[in-house]
Write a structure and sequence with these properties.
about 55% helix; 11 helices; mainly alpha; two-stranded antiparallel sheet; single chain; Serine Threonine Protein Phosphatase 5, Tetratricopeptide repeat; about 170 residues
């Protein structure tokens, strides 16, 4: 993405956070779902840093000849074969318990059967209970919503935990 366009996007997100989770009335498609579908990693990252909701599922048609399906940004990233975005979503607090195919092994997206390293990482994540810090971060990020950086200052928490709540780990090691 051109640097000017990227900076314009950042400014727009900063100025118009009220529209961050707005979706089309008929399809419920959000900016995060569109950016995921189009593999705009930088835009997804900015939306996540702006605390976009991860749980809004929308109706998408991924390819010509494929039926329209309701999906979360996480499922979209799997169906499109974008492990870097899927990992960013998980690290940002996406609730994997909603992704029933991970538990039942039924209707597993084909991509997961092709990328064994990512599948093993995902299985490790779901097989371990979340730590108290991860659960707290996910809860606070969902609860505080927009302008989280300002709102977190009002919460009586140690400074180190506030920093942890605000930080997101986007590193991909595969």
């Amino acid at each position: 993405m051109a640097l000017a366009a990227y900076e314009q996007l950042r400014a727009t997100l900063h100025n118009w956070r009220i529209f961050l989770n707005v979706s089309d009335e008929e399809t419920s498609v959000t900016p995060l779902l569109i950016a995921t579908k189009k593999r705009h990693v930088d835009i997804v990252k900015e939306l996540l840093l702006a605390n976009a909701r991860l749980d809004i599922a929308g109706l998408l048609k991924l390819r010509v000849g494929v039926e329209i399906k309701r999906m979360s940004p996480f499922l979209c990233s799997l169906l499109q074969g974008y492990p870097e975005i899927a990992r960013m979503l998980v690290n940002s607090g996406h609730d994997l318990t909603e992704e029933t195919y991970l538990w039942t092994n039924e209707d597993v997206p084909e991509f997961l059967t092709l990328d064994i390293e990512f599948w093993l990482w995902l299985q490790e994540i779901i097989s371990q209970p979340s730590t108290l810090m991860e659960t707290t971060r996910r809860f606070l990020r969902r609860s505080l919503g927009f302008e989280i950086a300002h709102k977190i200052e009002q919460v009586k928490l140690p400074p180190m935990l506030k920093k942890y709540v605000l930080s997101l780990d986007f590193e991909c090691d595969f």
